[in-house]
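Running co-folding for thiamine diphosphate.
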Amino acid sequence: MQNLECSDIIKKLGGGKKLTARLKKLTSELINEKTVYSWVRQGIPDRWKVAVARCLLEDNHNIRDYNKLLLPGISSENLTSANNSIQIFSESKVLKTNDENIDFSVDKETCIKIYKLMMRIRRFEEKVGQLYSMGMIGGFCHLYIGQEGVIAGIESIANNKDCFITGYRCHAHMVSRGEPLLNIFCELLGKKDGSSKGKGGSMHLFRSENNFYGGHGIVGAQVPLGTGIAFANKYLKNNAITFCFFGDGAVNQGQVYEAFNMAALWNLPIIYIIENNQYGMGTSVERASAMTELFRRGESFGIKGYEIDGMDPLAVNYHLKNIYNKVAKENLGPVLIEAKTYRYRGHSMSDPGKYRTRQEIQETRDNRDPIERVRSFLLKNEFMNEIEVKNLDKKIKDEVLVASDKAREMPLPDEDTLYEDVYYSKDRLP
Ligand SMILES: Cc1ncc(C[n+]2csc(CCOP(=O)(O)OP(=O)(O)O)c2C)c(N)n1
Ligand SMILES: [Mg+2]
């Protein structure tokens, strides 16, 4: 398909010889006919796409028809010719919650699904916080409370075969991917029946059977790993999208940009999601980032970026549905989403919280809470009544309590398994 379309472009522009001459004139660069003909097999290299697009425009072709072959950011509106130089203006955008043209309504089933998932995550995380304070959970522990709208909005549009990967703030993603709460509690409590046999703990939740690939403690490391998963999916023709989550702190890591380059170069099916909760440990985005429009961080690779309101799960659902379809069906390649969100609790359980005021947290809780927002939407649209919502909340609370109580009684791993699963062993693979 790609080859056919490339040869079509060359033909439309007068054939290889003519196009070579036109490109030479337009860019003042040396290019030979053989190179132009090689595009029929190899596709148009990125550095020539703008010039080719310019030729198409000169001949009054609608370049949107050729969009798949051109950089994702190129359209007739953002190509200009000033002083004979060609510029691309990025199509990165802020997708607002209150955009007047957008109706964020979702159907009843999706809305209830989003609400249920957020409630399960919040009650689960609150219980984890309690168990940690009781000294029952060892090691680090990072709660996700406040950020639930991001994962719930995304889960509502994702498929089971899609792959998720994130950093150490990973309990919610594991719940979202369908892991039973009991297994996660067991893991946090270091019990034998935990998702990683009680040996991984809070930062290393992992369940490849559910296409959840962790749980990573090295800030930013999940980005190249996720890019590798996306490469595998493309290579194996799995038709699966990778959702790679990372923070506003992680976005300044060098490996993120190496991964962006490869993802764009190979047009990988991946959606990068920056969960911008405004802080990396105790440092605000403004103090850590020279350029704070994080959704634009992929532009130099031709990766389209969108800012969305992560505190509005219905907006996340709406926008991601559109973007997902483009990545899955139109082969758009990598996309970068910046979900503006907020964590109510400390960075980890041992955060003194001196870098922000209580008032800031309270104001966000009072005015932007994702659960409250969807609860009022449910009630307003009569998807559920007050009593049904109350019953559902109670059911979820009970489920969490039963799972945590049970996990506390479960056995620890046998001592003789201590050295197992440390090094790779072929015999132990499933
Ligand atoms: C490579 C590396 N550097 C530093 C750390 C220490 N560290 C752990 S979390 C964190 C902040 C990351 O913040 P962000 O990416 O915004 O994620 P959030 O905690 O807000 O979810 C840092 C610096 C680390 N784990 N790995
Ligand atoms: Mg952060």
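Result summary
The two ends are 38 Å apart (CA to CA).
Confidence is low (pLDDT under 50) at residues 81-90.
Job closed.
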